[in-house]
Design goal:
This protein has 8 helices and 10 strands. The protein has 303 residues and is an alpha+beta fold. It has a 5-stranded antiparallel sheet.
């Protein structure tokens, strides 16, 4: 008798939990907007919003775990570059999670995907250069064709790179101005990278001397000037080239190596000052351009 009463009580409790409690929870989760009827109906309910929230939180946790897993053995610079790419990928993952969650909730996403495709095509055409910059930024970061600290020449401007982002690269020029370079320029145009292989670059200063000058003396003076400059490397050794016989001068170039190619204009200026002083000391003349002008007088015959 007691057993029968226990069974009846248990069944009633189950019915109450099933019909009242769970039913109330389902009714609460189904609250929201219900648009349309049949297969094309859209239901934006509390349950759907909760499901999206849980999906976003779970996805965010997984993405953070993956980021930590991939960057734990990277250096500081590589880690920053990977995080830039990771942010770009994260947006697509979130969009994919939303579509999967909405589809799992019973909403037909065919129309949404079709509209999104048309929208992305329009955006792609309107923002073509923006996407080029982003794709170029990903390639730059992955293949390490450009690094922070590199000295580059873009559109005739020389700058030292101090920041590489997904869309743009920033560099500071020799006159302390910041130039913002769209990343697609590094892919589609010819860019000079002075320090891609190493920090040492070869520079030169050109000078002309008067015809009849002692070319051996000129060579010795130029070599001596290079050796006296602190910013000029002693190895590889500087050397002089006798380049050509010019219209009004013998043309020489002093070739030297330096680790400070960013400060190259100051080094060349100091070398030119020293060359001028030593040429004056040794009587070597730097000629100015000369031209022969011939005047022809035409006599008029008066009739």
């Amino acid at each position: 008798m007691v057993a029968i009463l226990m069974q009846d009580t248990t069944s009633k409790v189950e019915e109450i939990l099933k019909d009242d409690v769970w039913g109330s929870i389902k009714d609460f989760l189904n609250l929201g907007l219900h648009l349309g009827e049949g297969e094309n109906s859209i239901h934006i309910t509390i349950g759907l919003l909760l499901l999206l929230t849980i999906s976003f939180l779970a996805t965010s946790f997984v993405l953070k775990w993956l980021r930590t897993l991939f960057t734990r053995k990277m250096g500081a610079d590589d880690k920053l570059k990977f995080i830039s790419i990771f942010k770009f990928i994260k947006y697509f993952v979130y969009i994919l999670v939303v579509l999967i969650t909405v589809s799992a909730a019973g909403i037909d996403i065919t129309l949404l995907i079709t509209a999104s495709a048309a929208l992305f095509v329009g955006l792609g055409l309107a923002l073509q250069e923006l996407f080029q910059d982003i794709i170029a930024g990903i390639f730059i970061i992955l293949d390490k064709s450009l690094n922070v600290g590199d000295i580059v020449e873009v559109d005739g401007k020389v700058g030292r790179v101090f920041e590489i982002k997904l869309r743009t690269t920033r560099a500071i020029t020799r006159d302390d101005k910041v130039v913002i370079i769209p990343n697609h320029k590094f892919i589609s145009e010819t860019i000079y990278n002075y320090t891609q292989n190493h920090k040492t670059t070869r520079e030169n200063v050109k000078v002309g001397v008067a015809y009849g000058s002692d070319v051996a003396l000129v060579t010795n003076i130029l070599e001596q000037v290079a050796q006296e400059q602190r910013s000029v490397l002693k190895s590889p050794k500087p050397f002089v080239l006798f380049e050509d016989f010019g219209d009004s001068a013998l043309l020489f170039s002093l070739q030297f190596y330096t680790n400070d190619s960013f400060g190259d204009p100051k080094i060349k200026s100091a070398i030119r000052y020293s060359i001028d002083a030593k040429f004056r000391e040794h009587g070597v003349t730097i000629p100015f351009p000369q031209r022969d002008v011939h005047l022809f007088q035409q006599n008029r015959v008066n009739g």
